[in-house]
């Protein structure tokens, strides 16, 4: 009966997010299954951690910056199914593993938290880093690039990544480790893991993520069409921002599971 209650609540939340233009219809369907799998394994506490990630992401995304050209990024506005899965799919998978294999519940739990710490670090870095007074620096070429270009970092963005990762780490410790002697250890580990996974995202964005140039205006963009059809100048066509984000959250989960073997 309790599961049925949560399934209904998740459905209502998804509908409200569609009406608020925070999710597309496909995004709502994906979010519903992410929520369903989360409740099955991690339980309602997992939804609270997701709320901390998604709620903070919505708040920061509402902040506008005149210096950031939305034509650079591949997607903006309401999140579609691919974006939902890229940011929450790994966490949902870890939770589902907890449901199927209860013996490995702790493995699934730390993977769940690590993936959300990575997603939050990356999102906060992107949304708050755009307010940096200086242009970000490309991770490999060390050249200044326009805000919004994947693979670039700024001091403000790095600080935001640490803060985002810490928020999820603190929430997770409060929900699951607050009465244990390892609470401080996991607070530090999840914070560091989320930050490192965010750097993995930046490294992939700087190296293998696809980047295009508009032949009409010369703009470097993640879009395959700007003024006209764009030309790929870097990376692989199948490595989109969503693929990079999925690798980021996967790295967060994997690093957390590895950390469990040493510190668990």
Order of helices and strands: HHHHHEEHHEEEH
Total strands: 5
Q: How many whole angstroms does the radius of gyration measure?
A: 18 Å
Structural class: mainly alpha
Number of alpha- plus pi-helical segments: 8
Overall pLDDT, averaged?
89
Give the overall shape: globular
Q: What is the domain tally? A: 1
Separation, N- and C-terminal Cα atoms: 34 Å
Task: Outline the biggest β-sheet.
Answer: 3 strands, antiparallel
Describe it for me?
Helices cover 64% and strands 5% of the residues. It is mainly alpha-helical and 264 residues long. The chain has one domain (2-263). It has a three-stranded antiparallel β-sheet, with no helix packed on it. A hairpin with a 6-residue loop joins strand 3 (211-213) and strand 4. Helix 2 runs parallel beside helix 4 (81-100), helix 3 (44-61) packs antiparallel against helix 6 and helix 4 packs parallel to helix 8. The longest helix has 25 residues, at 105-129. It is globular, with a radius of gyration of 18 Å. 45% of the residues are buried. The model has no long low-confidence stretch (mean pLDDT 89).
